[in-house]
Amino acid sequence: MSTNVSPAMAGDTTHPHATNDVAIQLQGISKRFGAVRANHDIDLTVKRGTIHGIVGENGAGKSTLMSILYGFYQADSGEILINGERKKIRSSKEAIACGIGMVHQHFMLVDTFTVLENIMLGAETHSLIEPSANDARGALQALSDNYQLSLDIDAMTGKLPVGEQQRCEILKALYRKAEILILDEPTGVLTPQEADQLFKVLDALRKQGVTVILITHKLREIMDITDSVSVLRRGEMVAHLKTSDTNSQELAELMVGRELQVQDFRRKTPLPAGTENGIEVVDLSLRDAQGKLRLDKVSLQVKRGEILGIAGVAGNGQSKLLEVLSGITSPDSGTVVINGHTITADKPINPRQLREYKVNHVPEDRLKLGLVKAFTAAESSVLGYLHQEKFSWRGLLQLSTIKNLCKKLMENFDVRPGNPNLKSASFSGGNQQKLILARELEKKPEVLLIGQPTRGVDIGAIELIHQRIVAMRDTGCAVLLVSVELDEIMALSDRIIVMFEGRVVGELNGADADKATLGLMMANAHESDAA
Amino acid sequence: MPDWLLAIFNVLDDALLPTMDATLRVSTPLILCAMAGLFSERSGIVDISLEGKMLAAAFAAGSVAAVSGSPVLSLLAAIMVSVSLAMVHGFASITHRGDQVVSGLAINVLASGLTVVLGIAWFRQGGQTPSLDSSARFMPIDLPFVEAAQSIPFFGRLYSEVLSGHNLLVYVGFAAVWLTWWVVYRTRFGLRLRAVGENPLAVDTAGLSVGKLRFSALVICGLLCGIAGTYLAIAQNAAFVKDMTAGQGYIALAALIFGKWRPLAALLACLMFGFLDAIAIRLQGVNVDFSLSLFGNVWPIKGEVPVQLIQSLPYVLTVVLLAGFIGRAIAPAAIGVPFSKER
After folding, report:
1. Which of A509, B28, B238, B339 has the fewest Cβ atoms within 10 angstroms?
2. Rounded to an integer, what distance in angstroms lies between the CA atom of residue A363 and that of residue A451?
3. Which residues span the domain enclosing B69?
4. Chain A interface includes B190 (CB < 8 A)
């Protein structure tokens, strides 16, 4: 597909004067960070009272653009018009004064404060807390009635579920009289049900004349709720479209700049009856240091040549399961047989032994467990294997071997830039992930444990990662996949189990799974129907 | 009143009251410093330079009092010096996002060296400032009705002997605790102060300046350290003596952590440390001679009380109690991390 530039369809006007119904207009915004061109000559027009989506891959410049609008960064050139007036936005304070509110991807809340304290922070009406709080209480009551945003404002913020924390952020913006609300990847941390609720709120806001900008990489959300959408690619606006005139496929291709194949990765033919298990878990339980039960009698099997997807809202035991299976944590009770080797509480195992047993692990948090940010790519590419003689002979690093291997990994997995001497931190998330995947898959595992393989990874890289995982399965590897992305789970898994509060609450065949059922299982709300 | 009760009161009067009196005196600089540290650390700036600021302030107070003879002028000078050092700390750790511990340590080393060098250069008394007349010092003041209260056993004497008869700065120290509590928990500034120590990004996106808030906190920190230093040089003592803070800034910091960064709990911790110190002072040179029977053995205990042992108690207690007995002290979440907008 060609670079489809169709300027400003959404606003239908680029004249700065005829702007009565235009809330935001950006003209020729450019921003460089050193040699990187984060935003280049960006135009954007957003009509008042609409929901406008901005999509783009990671690093396409979405966040930079919104940071410019919210006063975090200054544009090198270009103009910002709010309600038709030229504005200079140099700080959050000035953005707030322009009526702009922002709900950040990582919430900007003080966990030890109550919701009320968080909301009034910085917008107190009085120099003492109590009168300010009383004023805020009244105003919030009116706001939550208006927009169906119910929330216990005296609750401790850090203890609320993320959906409610997000509502607190929205209220915070509205309390500051925001007429333009920017949401940065708002559904990344929500269950499908929480996301639906959020969209109801956004819809109510739209009806009241609030302008919403929704930044996301989830095209389904764009299609569901936005009125118009702009696509960013490598710092440039490549399209402004009416949502009703486009579809997910077109948007995805605009984002990536090339055609994408729609693939169904699930097994076409069932496994033969007697296929042995690569992983067999029986009644596995685990308590954390605080004594809280994190895994509660989990049982599951993964056959060789099968991908088992584990769905669930983050924090319901999936991470702990991965930790136990990969030998990082020892179980309290239960048995794990992994690639023919038994692990119990009395007979723990460590990750290195497991690697020798051809069990490889691509951890969920690549920056914490996958690589060392300050190491070069070459150093990160041998983490966990340094004891092997070819990498360290009598304690001396075999630098050229390590570098050559890293180079080979980078070629095989299309890691860019392909330079083993660069610091791990300077690669994009997708390329870091590809490097880790390359390191583990190159060992030809018989059992593969993989957590959040595409978190923060762009579409192009997702395609490659998915293909490689499926290729492993096709060679007979048993794959256990943990992901909070339902689309990913559904695209890859031959079988899906759902975890809730450390228990397995449901199991589905990959072919039978749909989002609604999985969503209910993830909230453990399906049982009443089943019973 | 029955005789036995009177007897108990008499014992308390003789043993406890003087110790309590001494406790208040030695606790005052700890309390002022702990409150100073509370402002700084609640805003997210680690402050190990309480010690250095207090020392420099003490020297400033001693010097100005020796030259001018005015305690108020000395207090102002001490506060000025201490606030200036706090601003140096702020410049390094807020403006330039330097390491807060390194900056604090630098201030401590600077204060320890510079006070002696300047002291020798100006007064030629081996680093000490000249001894002061009482007119140049903060002298004890009697609270009202002291005469009348004297005759009431225990409670009356508690009032007249323990609470009354301190210099103004002791009362300022206690007022500072209440004021700190009020500012931190009741005012808009306090709300913002607590927020900036927990999540500065939240403060920034709420349209407030993280730097301004942290600098304001450091100004208050400097002010309180200045009062503490003044107390040491021209209220509790009559001259500045080389290294006269003797680690009290660190003890105050320990008390602050002990009190989980809360004013009243920190006050209690300071009083406990002060009490141990007061006991150590009272037991100095006391001889004991008795036997202790334990596990069927009789242990003769005889000789001078090892004061060093009691003096080391605050430190030992800090380590032992912080290691688990009082529960984990959860620091402000953003403490020690320089704020940067870049993500």
Report:
1. A509
2. 5
3. 13-325
4. yes
